[in-house]
Design brief:
The protein is of the alpha/beta class. The protein has eight helices and ten strands. The longest helix is centred in the C-terminal third of the chain and has 21 residues.
């Protein structure tokens, strides 16, 4: 089955995107990323060394750009100005790399997105030639505005970053998917494999996660579970579930022609 995730004109086999923070060391990071099967790897420019600190180990040594699509992100930014500055630095460090993840947070406690600053940063970045995958709230109106600006993927939260609460408002996610044409990728709030499967069963193009894997007791095993759950959820969405029936039981096996049946 030729079912690829396409972002900014490039196709990917995996619909699971993973972060690289919160692991105990680079060895665990590498093992978890490999187990996840992910091809797009997010990197927090303010928290990870990708060359800006030449005397420290670089993340690029274990996750080389020749093997993975790196997705620099603006984690820790609370204004459009800071986010734009951070991604300009990332582009310089990565030799003109243009695919980025934008997130502008509203406050340090909830880490809820500041959509006003997010929209402002999106306008600047798109105008400068960046291909912007944007983290946002689950507001379908804002999602459509971000698509109209030119963002290449809309990434609404399922619940708060790092909360592990899963998908709290599936109806808003469905509204977003009905209104935008670019990929909709659930970002933030996934806690376990069933959360990822539900997101994919709803029709989301993909799922991005970090804490759900890095915060597990066995991160590498959880990464493998997430890989399988995303694949299973996507297959279930494509297959089309049976309709739900309230108090309308029907046997799994046909009854026609069975012993004692009045039908033949």
């Amino acid at each position: 089955m030729n079912d690829k995730l396409i972002i900014a004109g490039k196709s990917y086999n995996s619909r699971l995107l993973v972060g690289t923070g919160k692991y105990k060391d680079f060895a665990e990071t590498k093992a978890a990323v490999e187990a996840s099967g992910s091809e797009i790897i997010t990197v927090a420019i303010r928290r990870s060394n990708i060359g800006q600190n030449p005397n420290e180990p670089s993340l690029l040594e274990i996750l080389p750009p020749s093997k993975y699509t790196l997705l620099p992100n603006t984690a820790g930014c609370y204004s459009a100005e800071d986010a734009v500055r951070t991604l300009r630095l990332a582009r310089e460090l990565l030799d003109g790399h243009s695919l980025v993840k934008l997130e502008v947070l509203g406050d340090p406690e909830s880490l809820y997105p500041n959509v006003i600053e997010t929209i402002a940063a999106s306008k600047t970045l798109v105008a400068e030639g960046f291909q912007v995958m944007v983290y946002t709230s689950d507001d379908p109106i804002v999602a459509k505005q971000l698509e109209d600006i030119g963002c290449v993927a809309i990434m609404p939260l399922a619940s708060l970053i790092g909360s592990g609460m899963g998908i709290l408002n599936p109806w808003n996610l469905q509204l977003i998917m009905e209104r935008v044409q670019v990929p909709v990728i659930v970002d933030a709030g996934v806690g376990t494999a069933s959360d990822a499967a539900i997101a994919m069963e709803l029709g989301c193009a993909g799922v991005l996660m970090n804490t759900a894997i890095a915060g597990a007791r066995q991160p590498v095993l959880m990464a493998s579970a997430m890989k399988l759950s995303v694949e299973a959820g996507r297959s279930a969405f494509l297959a089309g579930r049976m309709p739900k029936k309230f108090y309308s039981a029907s046997p799994s096996s046909p009854t026609a022609g069975t012993i004692g049946s009045t039908h033949s």
